[in-house]
UniProtKB/TrEMBL annotation:
CDD domains assigned to the protein according to its UniProt record, in alphabetical order: pro_PheOH
Protein name in the entry: Phenylalanine-4-hydroxylase
Pfam families in the record: Biopterin_H
Catalytic activity: (6R)-L-erythro-5,6,7,8-tetrahydrobiopterin + L-phenylalanine + O2 = (4aS,6R)-4a-hydroxy-L-erythro-5,6,7,8-tetrahydrobiopterin + L-tyrosine
Keywords attached to this entry: Iron, Metal-binding, Monooxygenase, Oxidoreductase, Phenylalanine catabolism
PROSITE patterns (alphabetical): BH4_AAA_HYDROXYL_1, BH4_AAA_HYDROXYL_2
Amino acid sequence: LQDPAAAPQRVEHRMTDKGYVPVYTTAVVEQPWSGYSRTDHEVWATLFARQQRLLEGRASEEFLRMQAAMGMTAREIPKFDDLNRSLRGATGWEIIAVEGLLPELDFFEHLANRRFPVTWWIRKPEQLDYLAEPDLFHDLFGHVPLLMNPLFADYIAAYGRGGVKAHAIGPEALANLTRLYWYTVEFGLIREAGGLRIYGAGILSSKGESIHCLDSAAPNRIGFDLARIMRTRYRIDSYQKTYFVIDSYAQLMEATRPDFTPLYAQLAVADSIPAGTVLDGDAVFHRGTGEGWPTDADV
Ligand code: PHE
Ligand code: FE
């Protein structure tokens, strides 16, 4: 949860599919770098080293390469200004420090303008394995390295513009777009020469899910299909029941280039698909056994 030492903030509560969640309307802040404690830097170092070791051979090659190119290391929590020098030069992106979740439209507008909001505070030592909301480790370690890749950088900016548009169309369009973000940016897998690899930030920042998504027989692993993903519900409180696999970042760009407006209209009359269902038309890499799946409703 939010660090009690956090700067004063204006908090609103917004009803979402998780119930009421706090939304920090505080705009952009300076990363209070000199305020990080020894413990904060140690949490970063521990998580960084642990994931680095685990992700060798599991994360997308491009992720590992870009992370090294940015100059992120375990030594201490990076200074956003330093990372921004690499990022601006590579793709014109920059990261900005925020207190936490932003109102949806603000978030989309930042992305459309190549600003990636990063939560400045880091989890506590007792939260190494799980916390319910994004912190510095998730945002910075998980999301930022791929913003150094030109294709992925363009994809996230296009998503931001698409978000502004979907927001104007209505809540159903927004739900369709959110599912796309969830199953790509947060929980996506990619097929590379060595086999399936991880590029989704929600997996990359989680020890348990980094193993589960590739090694467990429980979840489905299915080929990327835009309209199918936009209909698929998901889990917010457990590992995913299904992961979608792209062939390349170029495939993701191509598939999402068309205007989604007609697709939203079509999907408005289609049923949603439960998170664990496999359909006849799916390109199945692995059909999940479903072992250990929660039986309550998916989001
Ligand atoms: N092409 C989408 C639209 O018209 C925008 C988008 C691009 C959304 C990339 C997601 C990812 O809405
Ligand atoms: Fe995230």
